[in-house]
Amino acid sequence: MSSVDTAQVRIGRAQKRALALGVVGFLVAVILGWTASQKAGAVAWQAFVQSYIFAYVFWVAIPLGCLAILMLHHLTGGWWGLPIRRILEAGSRTLLLMGVLFIPILAGLSRLYSWARPEVVKDDVLLQHKLWYLTTRFFTLRAVIYFAIWVILASFLNRWSAEQDRTGDRRFKDRMEALAGPGLVLWGLTVTGAAIDWVMSLDPHWYSTIYGMIFMVIGCLAAMSFSVVVLSRLSDSEPLMDCVQPKRFLDIGNLMLAFVMLWTYMSFSQFLIIWSGNLRSEIPWYQQRVFGKWAPIAVTLLVLHFFVPFLLLLQRGVKRRLHVLSRVAGLLLVLTLVDIYWLLVPSYETLAPQFRLLDIFAVMGIGGVWLAAFLGQLKKLPLLPLHDPRFEGVLEHGHGD
Amino acid sequence: MKRESIYGLMAEFETPDQVLEAARRTHAAGYRRIDAFTPIPVEGLAEAVGFDWTALPALVFVGGLLGGLSGFGMCWYANVISFPMNIGGKPYNSWPSFIPITFELTILGAALTAVFGMLALNGLPTPYHPTFNVERFELASTDRFFLCVKSKDKQFDLAQTKAFLESLKPHGVFEIEN
Questions:
Q1: Could you tell me the residue range of the domain that residue B113 belongs to?
Q2: Are residues B69 and B113 in the same domain?
Q3: pLDDT tens sequence for chain B (178 residues)
Q4: Which of chain A's residues have a Cβ under 8 Å away from the Cβ of B43?
Q5: Which of A369, B63, B87, B98 is least crowded, fewest Cβ atoms below 10 Å from its Cβ?
Q6: A368: nearest Cα among A88, A80, A14
Q7: Same domain, B45 and B133
């Protein structure tokens, strides 16, 4: 039993480190944000909220993806959920915190979104037609609804899972299954809404119907990669050690491969349609992102977010070795951050990426705080859901299907 | 081609665990030309008989690559060389519009290679096989599990190998005539 403590102790230590990083990151970001506000002609706190939303979208994608993959697993079953189930659950329990961390964005709406600036809307007929939807009050209401749905879904799934672990009662499995179907539909709708509200409306003239899907895939890929990284960090401790077997990771690696391909499919479909149409209302969004100073980032995404992980994840040798798979997962997490940078930031740094220090500290600040909350949640329950009927016999025989 | 009069020896087992254990021990005893026949997939059996490498993934990759290249090449040839047309003022070599075809033909090439490569590497179709000479072998498709040591194996010696297989406590050991 002493080795169980080791995992918990290790998580506890990592949690303290993450919290320290988060607090430092936040403080530095606020100082940098304040300094930027003092420059002549700067709008107070504008640079800060711009960096903040970039970091926020990245870090909210992971718990949202956790929630989706958790529900996906309740629907489909499969042993691949066994080693990552607790990680996904802990991730989904941080959504309330993400709701609290959304407040700075609400406070800085007029600094982020041109539709929230009356002096811009006054001269923009197109925006005036969109004003029934893009109002501060309605935007806030929608954000509250999204978070309420996510937090309620997560809390039911987590409560039942904990009850199941305690009692071993099969009824909880049925309940979780029953919630997962409609839950995933709600998840899809709300994530689409959030992607349109929070990210797409940074360019209020531009629109793309596949945008929500792109963010769903980003979330799932980020959550899957994050789980693999966490798992490999904890894999040499009880009780995970027993279920960390090479062939077990094939499915997880295959899911990562599927999400990498889905990301490419979605991103390319959007590009192909807009490129073919070549319309003045749509094409500038891509012109900004694939020509000029932003072009190297687009090429980086194509190579490192598609070709490299795709070719690596095709190989069984990579998928069967957890420490190799976790390197690929780490690469994908970094590239997801780059992808979100490329999607969001050109909306306000129109000509070239500025690579502001503020961006880095915002990522560190929100990330540290989020990670500390995640690890705190992960610590609360045993690392494996041993009483789930789906996993019965898997650990004893070592060859579950 | 020189043919041995004996193709090999066949041991019959009653459960998947028995055949799995027997396969592991046979492989550990140094036999390499071994094969197993079971009515249901037995996890780990392929590894146990030493089947750890197949050319199929590499073939499928090459098939997919060739499919993709031919898809792109076809689009490029049609739009740039054979029948250049001004479509919406775009350049003739508008590669983004070639990607869907490239993608489809990659899948087609990979899938066809997978199916026919699998058949070819398995030597299928095979209308005659020496194992059919063992009368009880037809049980391999109902409820019995068979392990075969081929006479091509360097270590193969009819009497010794037979004694070794007997030591694995099978239901029976049969000689396979060629």
A1: 56-122
A2: yes
A3: 445 688 888 888 888 888 888 888 888 888 888 888 888 888 888 888 888 788 899 999 999 999 999 999 999 999 999 999 998 889 999 999 999 999 999 999 999 999 999 999 988 888 888 888 887 888 888 888 888 888 888 888 888 887 888 787 888 888 887 7
A4: 399, 401
A5: B87
A6: A14
A7: yes
Specify the 3-state DSSP secondary structure of B147. strand
CB pairs under 8 A between A and B: 19
Subunit contact B96:A278, Cβ cutoff 8 A: no
Write out chain A residues lying below 8 Å of B57, CB-based: 314-316
H helix count then E strand count, chain A: 20, 0
Q: Collapsing DSSP states into helix, strand and coil, what is residue B148?
A: strand
Q: What is the DSSP string of B12-76?
A: EESSHHHHHHHHHHHHHTT--SEEEE-SS--TTHHHHTT----SHHHHHHHHHHHHHHHHHHHHH
Let me know: does A386 contact A240? Beta carbons within 8 Å: no
CA A395 – CA A392 distance, rounded (Å): 7
Give yes or no for a contact between B137 and B10, defined as CB atoms under 8 angstroms apart. Answer: yes
Domains of chain A, residue spans: 3-382
Amino acid at residue number A394: V
Q: 């197949």: which residue's tokens?
A: B54
Nearest CA to A230 out of A212, A215, A247, A252 is that of A252
CA distance A291 to chain B (A): 15
The per-type count for chain B, helices as H runs and strands as E runs, is 5, 4
A35 near A358, Cβ under 8 Å? Answer: no
For chain B, how many structural domains are there in total? 2
pTM assigned to the model: 0.87
